[in-house]
Specification:
By secondary structure, the chain is of the alpha/beta class. Helices cover 29% and strands 23% of the residues.
Length: 315
């Protein structure tokens, strides 16, 4: 089954050119099935680019997925046309009374900003608290993972001295190989990171009850989840396109930040050569597993009957 998105969304034609099955809203309404309702809270500046990346991953599923786009506030955007935001994005107040099968909270370029200094921090807390009562499973990406850990476990912000940038090898937790999120995963896999946050496996093990599912010697924790699978944390960027790290590297160069060349990204570590993608398959698999095992297998058929008491932890 395809992903279902608005007919005129820019991502629609982009994904179709990539031979990805996209169903328009016009056609989807004729199918007599209930699609999964997934809300995407897009915190990234370049919203069109980011929404396309996530919809690409959400499409890799036999389930019909109905994606709605959410913005954190109504401030003007420097990187996204106002017309696009007004046409395709909702304000939180318009969805507050509804229930959703899934929520994805994207990363944000706020790695060096303290939580209390984030202009929309209180609003983000409001959304995350709302999700406990209205969303079956929430997927936190990169900076949002750090924000989610602060909210759920009151963990302090831990910042690296140098930015972590590149594609890193990860290994799955040998004691949790049967976890649904890891089904189909190779013992080791590659995934991109671009962050200042520090997610030490030992620190998370000591201060949380999370299942730590995949880690990297260099990048720390990559994938973790609460026991009930209602909160999933991904510290990297499985959604990134082939050139996303490239653009970020050159952006930092232009801003005089003297960044290190992203690790294991360019052939022979040479930025003059085109980068190659080595993480796409596991990115698709991760999202397919999340949709199936954390959302579809757990969510009520009638979202109106959603209740936290519906969820139990498998022993």
């Amino acid at each position: 089954m395809p992903i279902k998105i608005p007919d005129q969304l820019p991502a629609t034609n982009i994904l179709r050119r990539e031979n990805i099955f996209v169903m328009s809203q016009t056609r989807a309404v004729s199918q007599n099935i209930r699609p999964l309702k997934v809300l995407l809270l897009n915190l990234m500046p370049k919203k069109i680019e980011t929404e396309t990346q996530f919809m690409r991953l959400l499409s890799n599923s036999p389930l019909q997925v109905d994606v709605e786009l959410l913005r954190i506030d109504n401030r003007p955007s420097k990187n996204t046309p106002t017309e696009h935001l007004d046409t395709f994005y909702r304000q939180f107040e318009t969805v507050r009374a509804r229930n959703f099968d899934g929520l994805i909270v994207t990363g944000a370029p706020l790695g060096l900003v303290q939580f209390e200094d984030v202009i929309y921090w209180e609003h983000l807390q409001d959304v995350m608290n709302w999700a406990h009562q209205h969303v079956t499973s929430t997927l936190y990406i990169c900076w949002a993972a750090q924000a989610g850990l602060k909210l759920l476990y009151d963990l302090p912000k831990k910042t690296r001295k140098e930015k972590l940038s590149g594609v890193y090898r990860h290994h799955i937790n040998e004691t949790l190989t049967t976890h649904p999120l890891l089904r189909g995963f190779d013992d080791s896999f590659l995934a991109p990171h671009s962050r200042y946050a520090d997610f030490s496996p030992s620190f998370l093990s000591e201060h949380t009850d999370l299942d730590i599912l995949a880690t990297s010697t260099q990048a720390g924790t990559y994938l973790a989840a609460t026991k009930d699978k209602r909160n999933v944390f991904v510290t990297g960027h499985p959604e990134y396109d082939s050139h996303t790290l490239h653009h970020e590297y050159h952006r930092d160069l232009e801003e005089g930040m003297e960044p290190e060349v992203p690790i294991n990204y360019y052939p022979d570590n040479d930025p003059s050569q085109p980068p190659y993608v080595s993480w796409r398959s596991h990115g698709h698999l991760l999202f397919a597993n999340w949709l199936n095992y954390c959302v579809y297998q757990m969510t009520p058929f009638d979202l109106a009957t959603f209740s936290e008491s519906n969820f139990t932890v498998d022993e």
